[in-house]
Amino acid sequence: MRPGFEDQAAGLRRLLHRAPPQVLSVVCCGPHAVSWLADQARLKAAQGSSVVAFDELDCCGNLADALGAAPRFDLLQAVEREVPLEMARLAVGRGLHLLSTARLSRALPGADRRFAARLADTCRRLQLGADLWLVHSRPGAGNGLSALAMAAHRMMVVVEGNARSVTEAYALLKQIRRGPWPQIDLAVAGDGAKAEETLVANLIDVVQQNTPLAVRRVRGLDACVAAANAVLGRRDQRYLERVMVIAQRAPMALSV
User: Fold this and answer.
1) Average pLDDT, stretch 224-243?
2) For a disulfide at 36, which of 70, 85, 189, 235, Cβ 3.0-4.6 Å?
3) What is the mean pLDDT of the chain?
């Protein structure tokens, strides 16, 4: 770890002392899976939660498209004070906001102390009143998941009921086999048809036979949030610290 980084981490903990939101990392394997996530985010907001979605994909078919939104700015631009935060944060429904974070995620590796301080300040403002952060992620070519995704309290993979989606999910799960989560949640963007359930059951069996991961089938975001809360208690204060440690590529046993 760089000299002075421990002091920086302690400062981040003080800055984020107020109860922050739950953070879930979600990887969608297919376009219908992305639409499913958008519907789940809307449902969670309609139930009274304040939800902030971070979209790390800057290509067609991302979460912004599924939510019918078109962000003009990336959160990185707000962190760097190029635009006000409100210009990067889009309201896409009552209780639901969207931020494009593709550029921010790419900028995190090797970030310096100045950048970390600005990120902490920006995130503190985003945390105010928020109950749930959703990090919509996808592994980059040879780079794995981003620091924002890897530091999340819980991981969910959403598949479609077809062989291509299930194969993509298996490749992902093999790639993150040494991730920080004690268990990964698996959801299906489908109608629960028998053929879909068989595919998913087979995927879980193969993953558990060939990786150290524990995988469980869930029906929606509520189960994922509840499982994280059961482990963490009311709130975990150290998400952003973990983001920066991962971004610095320093070895760390993540406490989740």
Assistant:
1) 75
2) 189
3) 85
The HSE-up count of residue 35 (CA atoms within 13 Å, CB side) is 6
Q: Which residues, in sequence order, are CB contacts of 88 under 8 Å at separation 6+?
A: 71, 73, 74, 75, 77, 78, 99, 100
Residue 178 has pLDDT above 70, yes or no: no
Q: Which two tokens stand for residue 26?
A: 């979600």
Give the domain extent around 117. Answer: 5-247
**pLDDT confidence of 139, banded at 50, 70, 90?**
confident
Task: Give the count of domains, the chain.
Answer: 1
Cα diameter, the chain: 56
- Compute CA distances 149 → 14, 68, 223, 237, 244, whole Å: 22, 23, 18, 16, 12
Specify the pTM.
0.86
Residue 189 tokens read as 């963007």
pLDDT band at 246 (very low <50, low <70, confident <90, very high): confident
Q: Is 199:161 a contact under the CB 8 Å cutoff? A: yes
239 in any annotated domain: yes
Where are the strands (E) in the chain, listed by range? 22-29, 51-55, 90-93, 96-100, 132-137, 154-159, 184-188, 215-217
Q: Which two tokens stand for residue 109?
A: 């590796």
207 CA to centre of own chain: 21
